[in-house]
Amino acid sequence: MFEEDPRHSGEKREAILEAALELIAEHGLQHTPMSLISKRAKASAGGIYHHFESKEDLLQTLYWRIKEEMTHAIVAADDLSQPLAKRFQTLWLSIFRYGLAHRQEMAFLEQYESVPRVKSQDARLPEEGTPLDDLIERFCTQNDLPGEVQILYRLIVDLRVQGLIKDLPLIIISELTYGAALRLAKHVHAGQVHLSDATLTETAKACWDAIAR
């Protein structure tokens, strides 16, 4: 039995979130029960439910924390004074580098976003069957999302409104660009390909060329 010192409540909450992240990356979402998280975090069952109402609540908290940290790191390099095409390439490289450096977080996001049962628990996430273009438009305007999350999607919308990119569905634009960056990072992390900085820069430009008019 692990007793929680109320003076370290915040630290224990972080330990629970970190334990959940590690275990889900190791065993998968469906094979990570609260009991396993409790053991890894050295927290009692009661301690976990003091911080999170349920496993779904824990997962949602972890999801939005990762999403906010990820987008904050990505847009840190954004320079609003640059042309939109240059901003796109900078953000593309930032997305790739984040994905490469945070494989546990990427594994969690990939699993979490693919489970409809979990999606339905959070009003900020779309209902099953929501058109993907509607989803991206929603992410551009939803006030309860971190500002950085909106920036990434707004850039795509701004590019299309200004006629700088092809008139394709927004989800296709996103998959050809941001999605490609994350998938490539996954291949590099797995040792399937090695890319120099020069090649990465050219790849970012190639992704831009794929969508540019």
UniProtKB/TrEMBL annotation:
PANTHER family in UniProt: HTH-TYPE TRANSCRIPTIONAL REGULATOR RUTR, HTH-TYPE TRANSCRIPTIONAL REPRESSOR FATR
SUPFAM superfamilies: Homeodomain-like
Classification of source organism: Bacteria, Bacillati, Chloroflexota, Ktedonobacteria, Ktedonobacterales
Family annotation (InterPro entries): Homeodomain-like_sf, HTH-type_TetR-like_transc_reg, HTH_TetR, TetR-like_HI_0893_C
Annotated PROSITE patterns: HTH_TETR_2 (PS50977)
Entry-linked Gene3D superfamilies: Tetracycline Repressor, domain 2 (1.10.357.10)
Keywords annotated in UniProt: DNA-binding
Domain (HTH tetR-type) ranges: 10-70
Record-given protein name: TetR family transcriptional regulator
Organism: Reticulibacter mediterranei
Residue ranges of DNA binding: 33-52
One Pfam family of this chain: TetR_HI_0893_C
One Gene Ontology term of the molecular function aspect: DNA-binding transcription factor activity
